[in-house]
Amino acid sequence: MFEKKFIAQAIDRSAQNPLDRRRFLRAAGIAGAGVGAASLLGASPASAAETGGPSDAAILNFALNLEYLEAEFYSIATTGARLPESITGGTGTRGGVTGGRAVPFKTKAIRQYAQEITQDEKGHVVFLRSALGAAAVSRPAINLDASFRAAAKAAGLGDNFDPYADEVSFLLGAFIFEDVGVTAYKGAAPLISNKTYLGAAAGILAVEAYHAGLIRTTLFSLGVQAQSAAGKISAARDSLDGPVSDDQGILVNGTANVVPTDSNSMAFGRTPGRVLNIVYLTPSVATSGGFFPAGVNGTLNQSGGGSPSSGAAGATVMPSGGVATGAGGTSGGRDSGLLVGGAVAAAGAVAAAGAYQHSRATATDGTQTDVLPAK
Question: Given a cut of 60, is residue 308 above it in pLDDT?
């Protein structure tokens, strides 16, 4: 009973019409609940239109673009294969994936870490697509070749960086993505009013934080050279996402910095615009570039280009821009960051905890190797 009430409350908040709500309920495994589920809801929180932020569907699709990127990166590294076509189609233009090959892992533990993260990221893609239904965007064109070389060159790591060349290079490539994911989820926290819903989102954030912590810890254990390289990548990210200097390497003042925090031991957050600055590899306003040479699919597709001002109650007030762009949306409206909507926060925290763990062991699409047991 608690789980159904928990899911239904969050879904009611996020669904923008009855069709959305029915789709989310199906994804959460409580389809057919009908009046019984509706009676659990009580008063509904404000809609996206009322708060001036982007719709939950737009936010979920923004998340799906990023999950495609991570899932392709890890899938190719661990299996040599891209995601199957059955989970990459949808609205917008489906693009191809350039670059990548299986990493010649030598350390059993690192190989298994990579395989486990692959399962998680692929699961995120499958779940988001299921929750969004026909509204899910296609995988955009993804570049895992020239983009890594450009990012590494900007970081001072040379002209020919290849994250698939060896396991250390792979870990550095993963480091580029994982910290960005954590800060994107954190950026949503101040905008969530329902405590139960916030708890669900926190559970998803924890998965991304586990990934980032694992990558950071492993790199730190590899010694000075890896620590220095990670520091350069951190500095490069910081140079792209606006004037605020909050990104951190894994070594600060000669001391381990596995958990990057502020003076209050809190993680920092990023808005969609700042996230896109990093994956587009530009500090300017743009709608394509870097890892997404044709841009991301969906309405949240524009990187930021300036310093946001502070709004009421700690909200981020972005400059005037397109109706649903990473650079801001409506004038004076709050940029929702990577606020993972009801489908992920509710069903992902409860339903996916069981259903996907089962699918990890029974998947038959041929893209997984050495499937790990359910956690």
Answer: no
Contact, 52 vs 117, CB < 8 A? no
Burial of residue 35, with CB atoms counted within 10 A of its CB: 0-12 exposed, 13-18 middle, 19 or more buried: exposed
Q: Which two tokens stand for residue 83?
A: 């995601």
Strand duo 142-143 + 251-252: pairing: unpaired
From residue 44, give the alpha-carbon distance in Å to each of 8, 259, 277: 11, 37, 34
User: Rounded CA gap, 189 and 1, in Å?
Assistant: 26
For 15, 143, 249, the CA distances from 232, given in Å and listed in that order, are 42, 21, 8
Q: Report percent pLDDT > 70 for the chain.
A: 62
* Contact present, 201 and 192 (Cβ < 8 Å): yes
Q: Report, in angstroms and rounded to the nearest whole number, the Rg of the chain calculated over CA atoms.
A: 20
* Per-chain mean pLDDT for the chain: 73
pLDDT band for position 364 (50/70/90)? very low
Exposed, middle or buried: residue 319 (CB in 10 Å: 0-12, 13-18, 19+)?
middle
Determine how many CB atoms are found less than 10 A away from the CB of residue 179: 29
Rounded Cα gap, residues 340 and 96, in angstroms: 25
* Residue partners of 30: CB distance under 8 A and separation at least 6: 4, 7, 8, 37
For residues 216 and 1, the model is more confident at 216
Query: What was the pLDDT predicted at 199?
Result: 56
Q: Is residue 336 pLDDT above 90, yes or no?
A: no
Residue 339: what pLDDT? 33
- The mean pLDDT of 59-64, rounded to a whole number, is 80
Q: What is each CA distance from 310 to 12, 278, 282, in whole angstroms?
A: 29, 22, 23
A 10 A CB-CB count for 326 gives 33
From residue 59, alpha-carbon distances to 37, 100, 128, 166, 369 in Å are 25, 28, 11, 35, 31
Name residue, tokens 């520091």: 231
CB atoms within 10 A of CB 168: 19
Q: Kindly report, residue by residue over 230-254, the tens digit of the pLDDT.
A: 999 999 999 999 888 899 999 999 9
SS3 category, 135: helix
